[in-house]
Amino acid sequence: MNFIINEILLGIIAVAMTIIAIKITFSFNINEYLKRKDERLHLKIKNNCTHVNIGWLENGDIAVQSCFYSPSGISSYTCQKCGMQVDYLNEDDEKRRVKYFLNNPKILFKKEKKFKKLIKKAGIV
Ligand SMILES: [Zn+2]
């Protein structure tokens, strides 16, 4: 009789331990998944960032300015909007990029809209 009770108790302990193990694995995977999802989202944000500030001139014209800045003492450039870092910034390429957006405001606003949607999704704003 005693032997059967011991057997049952051992069985219950084994089942309980299995449940705990499954729970730990499950929550661990969820955290990993959320972290990966977060990383993917941040990468997506950087990919969809225009890296330019949009402003308006007094006459109603659109003004576009590069978001990259280089803090003194640091050789790399950082985008103020998405935080992307680049080691080298070609000024001519940057001017061309700004000019491209100035000439194609539709593309700029479309990208900007997607960017805002993504940062909202990431909970940044
Ligand atoms: Zn950016």
Short note summarizing the structure:
Helix content is 62%, strand content 14%. The longest helix is centred in the N-terminal third of the chain and has 47 residues, at 2-48.
Please, could you describe this protein's structure?
The protein is of the alpha+beta class and 125 residues long. It has a domain at 52-125. The protein has 3 helices and 5 strands. It has helices at residues 2-48, 91-103, 105-121; strands at 52-56, 62-66, 68-69, 77-79, 85-86. The strands form 2 sheets. The protein has a 3-stranded antiparallel β-sheet, with no helix packed on it. A two-stranded antiparallel ribbon has the order 1-2. The longest helix is centred in the N-terminal third of the chain and has 47 residues, at 2-48. The model has no long low-confidence stretch (mean pLDDT 89). Bound molecules: zinc ion (ZN). Zinc ion (ZN) binds at residues 49, 51, 67, 79, 81-82, 84.
CA-atom Rg in angstroms? 26 Å
Shape: elongated
| Main sheet: strand order | 3-4-5
| Number of helices, counting only DSSP H or I runs of 4 residues or more | 3
Number of DSSP strand runs = 5
* Proportion of residues in extended strands: 5-15%
> Termini distance?
65 Å
N-to-C SSE string, H for helix and E for strand: HEEEEEHH
**Distinct bound molecules:** zinc ion
Q: Percentage of helical residues?
A: 55-70%
Question: Which class of secondary structure composition applies to the elements?
Answer: alpha+beta
